[in-house]
Amino acid sequence: MIVPINIKTGTLIQSEIPNQQDIIVGIDLGTTNSLIAYINPQDNLPTIITDEEGNNGLVPSILHFTDNSNWIVGNDARPYLISHPQTTLYSIKRLMGKSYRDIAEHNQLFSYQIIDDDTERLVKIRVNNRFYTPIELSALLLKALKERAETTLQTTISKAVITVPAYFNDAQRQATRDAGKLAGLDVLRIINEPTAAALAYGIGTASDTNTSETIAVYDLGGGTFDVSILRIEEGVFEVLATNGDTFLGGDDIDRAIVQYWITQCPDLGINKSMYRELRLRAEQAKKYVSDNHSTYSHVTQIFEFGTAIILALNPDELRQILLPFIERTLTCCRQALSDAQLTTTEVDKVIMVGGATRTPLIRQKVSELFGKPVYNELNPDEVVALGAAVQADILAGNQRDMLLLDITPLSLGIETMGGLMDVIVPRNSKIPIRAARQYTTQRDGQSGINIAIYQGERDLVKDNRCLGEFVLRGIPAMPAGLPKVEISFTIDADGITRVRATELRSGVAQQIEVKPQYGLSEEEMSQMLLESVRHAQTDRDTRALQEAINEANTLADTADHFIVRHADMLSTDEINLTRDHIAALRQSLSSNDKDLIHTYIETLNTHTRPFAERVMDAAVAMAMKGKQALSNDILE
Predict the structure, then answer these.
(1) Fold of the domain built from segment(s) 24-201+381-395
(2) Which of these, 183, 204, 463, 617, could form a disulfide with 143 (CB 3.0-4.6 Å)?
């Protein structure tokens, strides 16, 4: 269950249900725009919190950093997309829980610098001379939303429900939760966006729990598309299937319009700044034609030499541009239905989410596919945030007929290198549950791994509670990084946790049974939650520094081994300079400056990358030569 605490005073609220005066907000942390909502006590309806003028609830998910590393967010940051693209960040949600390899083929979509360290580690973004993670950047967006709510409602906001796409994996969900904690929010629940959309329409709420329905949620936003098939029975939401494209949205339609204009004026070259200006014009054109069903026309002089041209788009042209994108989304819908083993006739309702679904042609085609009118009465930009507010109201105890499944009171995880807590089962996870993650060895020939199990919300295990530990022995001797050790947590309906470690290559396994609460009182759990919020920033800084140190040590050791193994392929100057870079990196560790360490990491990576490519090319050539020799032997 959720243990309610007063974040400001640190005292336990005696009821198991949070004080109904304690506002819990719902947040839609979006790729393009973000919103925050709450249940208005005057009419008990979900309400979007707008700006100070009461005009707009949308907060563009854009951050701009000034020269002194101060930051501005939302509409105030938007103009800098053109004037300062290197220090203006957008589409951060696409980077959550991702490594560089995950987004490498889409890197051209980002105008800012994403560090390519050729590893599976989470991406880092360089702005001026500082390095940020997507978690830290998302925390700044969440902090802005929190401040907006506090200004409007004139109260401290400390608890929230945050939505994520249904396809988000554990790493992405944990990253979102960490961003909330870093923003000073106690994240009571991470819920799927399609579930939130259904709740906004009253589907599955207390007044609608006696029905069993299957719904499809079609979500086409600015940067991503996904479709989810949900079954709702007695107030319980089950995701049957989800499909989509994390790089398909309204932004891609805008780029297609720009490309169409460019083909109309093939003799006029454009630079990046001009292209970004055209993107803004394309977005205007798309909205104008969709809303007015008439031709958009604009005279612009953004091209070189002051040449004036007319940017025009009529309904037929927009239709031809849209159709390929719509068909891609419909293909995803068909696949999701197939995965759920359903036909369109078995879907009771279709809900439209995302600003791009305002386009009449999109609604028409989706309606034709499913053979029924779509639900689009609510603002598609706001529906997810409104649903998050409904979920928040449920957690506040104001809808007591809703079924709330048992959940884990505190996060569970293990100790990793540098004394860090690696969460495997986030707090508030529904039980029963099984979650697993893979790890590897740190040293060549390592035959055993000590697995220490912890409970708590802090980033360092020394600040959490140790539940037990055991040793996985008998791992066959292999080079560091080669063994694959899966550590799984299984929690049954009684709250009993079994932790199992298995070396997947050899099958060697060991397990332990622990009780998650392990004697903790409600007051102790409340205090642990309070401490995690109070120390979120310092914990995050400590974790970021330790992760940088871990990465630096690993890279320095790898570079040392590389020189020894491939000295015959390197010149004396190359070897000496590489060793100088390694020494500088190791020396930077004493600075306790995360950004400085990352700077030296990037320098060493950049310096050694050509050597690695040279060795790889030589290995490929040798392999091809051997293959050719074998072929000749066969022919003879």
Answers:
(1) Nucleotidyltransferase; domain 5 (3.30.420)
(2) 183
For residue 485, which of 453, 437, 522, 526 has the smallest C-alpha distance?
Answer: 437
Contacts of 395 (CB under 8 A, 6+ apart): 2, 18, 24, 161, 188, 189, 404
Among 273, 261, 346, which Cα is nearest to 309's? 261
Q: Is the pLDDT of residue 67 over 50?
A: yes
Structure tokens at 258: 């720009």
Active-site residue 124, yes or no?
no
Q: Where in the chain is the domain with CATH 3.30.420.40?
A: 24-201+381-395, 205-377
Catalytic, out of 136, 193, 393, 503: 193
Give the SS3 label for residue 126: strand
CATH number of 412-521: 2.60.34.10
Alpha-carbon distance of 49 to 167, in angstroms, equals 27
93 noted as active-site residue: yes
The better pLDDT of the pair 22, 20 is held by 22
- 8 A C-beta contact, residue 588 and residue 597: yes
Longest dimension (CA), the chain: 90
146 is catalytic: no
Q: Which fold has domain 205-377?
A: Nucleotidyltransferase; domain 5 (3.30.420)
Domain 538-635 classification at class level: mainly alpha
Length of the chain: 636
Average pLDDT over residues 534-548: 86
For 220-246, the pLDDT digits (tens) are 988 889 899 988 887 777 888 888 887
The mean pLDDT value for 482-503 works out to 84
Most confident region among 169-178, 403-412, 615-624 by mean pLDDT: 169-178
